Amino acid sequence: MLPRASDGLEPVAATVRKEPSYTICKERLLRTPDGSGDHLWIRVRKIDISTGQTQQALARAVHCQPEDFKYIGTRDRFSDCEQWFSVRKDRVEHVPALKNAGYKSKVRVMEIGESARAISAGVLDCMEYTLRLGDAAANQGYLHAKAILDRLRQDGGPNYVAPSRFGKGGQLAKWGKLIASGKRLPRHVQQQKISKGACLQAWQGMLFNRYVAQRFEAGLLGTCLGGECILTGCQNTTVNRAEDHAPDMDEEQDGVEGAALVHTQKRLDSWEAIPLGPLFGTDMTPARDAARAYELAFLEKISVSEKMIGRLRYGGRRAIRFQPGNVHCEQDGDDLLVKCTLDPDVYITTLLEELLQTDYHIK
Asked: Count of H helices and E strands in the chain?
């Protein structure tokens, strides 16, 4: 079981995700469509349907190709979700026809606006969630939920990749490791035409989780290592965020060796900056100094060679800790409602696992 911030606290006994209305989410944008331009922005409410299926429904309504419709990221299928899409105006012959987009009453176009640019990750501020925890009010459920949420607000929690990314029983990740080891997939797997890229990406995510778990268990989740990649501007909107390197351990500030790193640690303590962990791959931004040594020692510890990492593509960096914002918990009959905002790269299952202390991860 992966370690979590709520370890040592009483879990919440609840029924979750019983139906899509148990998870309500909305994309909160930094700005709305500006009213004119070459692109249409479409706010869609989708219920129990994937982002890809929604994209196809929009395309069918106006006789376009699904790939003409852009979106910021895939959202949970089993939820009641408001998500934004965009499309070039010259791809749509009859704009009002977008209102007819639908799929078994699971897709509804709520708003259409114009903008100069296509929608992109830079306009997404956060995800807004309302979670229903069924029958959770009994047995001091409110107090247990509040204690966990208070700890997450104060200390943060490990920002794991959701187990759904690894395939059933972690099988995709296991096959990804097999490919990275230079071996062939079993014949029955090849016959399923499963993407090698998806397998490698799953293993990449599992490696990230193991790295985060090690940092957490060592008490280093909120500690800045020398030369570490960090995300700055985290107390502001996402548009002001930027990746940077923490100072090396011996870097001076005001003539004092190591003082620069101490100053950066204060930024982490106030959540103005967040450490970025490795999504190992050939194009990942390298860490420096102590952080690089820590990552190499981690790979050696779990017997992952440089050659295996060389077979991974599209590496990157991801926040290793998360902090829910605007947290509110209230009783609704026998249930509890938990409302909060999360950064776009935080999986809602990560928060649910903290509250319920369930674990579907395969190490």
From this structure: 9, 16
Q: Which of 33, 54, 128 is nearest to 339 (CA)?
A: 128
| The CATH number, out of the four listed (3.20.20.70, 3.40.50.150, 3.30.2350.20, 3.40.50.2300), of the domain defined by the range 20-125 | 3.30.2350.20
Largest CA distance in the chain: 67
Q: Does domain 158-322 have CATH number 3.30.2340.10?
A: yes
pLDDT in tens, 263-299: 999 999 999 999 999 999 999 999 999 999 999 999 9
Nearby residues of 87 by Cβ (< 8 Å), 6 or more positions away: 39, 40, 42, 58, 62, 64, 68, 69, 70
The amino acid at residue 167 is: G
DSSP of 156-183, one letter per residue? -EE-PPPGGGG-GGGHHHHHHHHHHTTP
C-alpha 55/C-alpha 39 separation (Å) is: 16
pLDDT tens per residue across span 111-125: 999 999 999 988 999
Residue 327 zone, left/alpha/beta (φ > 0; ψ -120 to 50; rest):
beta
Question: Running DSSP on this structure, what letter comes out for residue 10?
Answer: P
Q: Alpha-carbon distance 79 to 188, whole Å?
A: 33
CA 244 – CA 275 distance, rounded (Å):
10
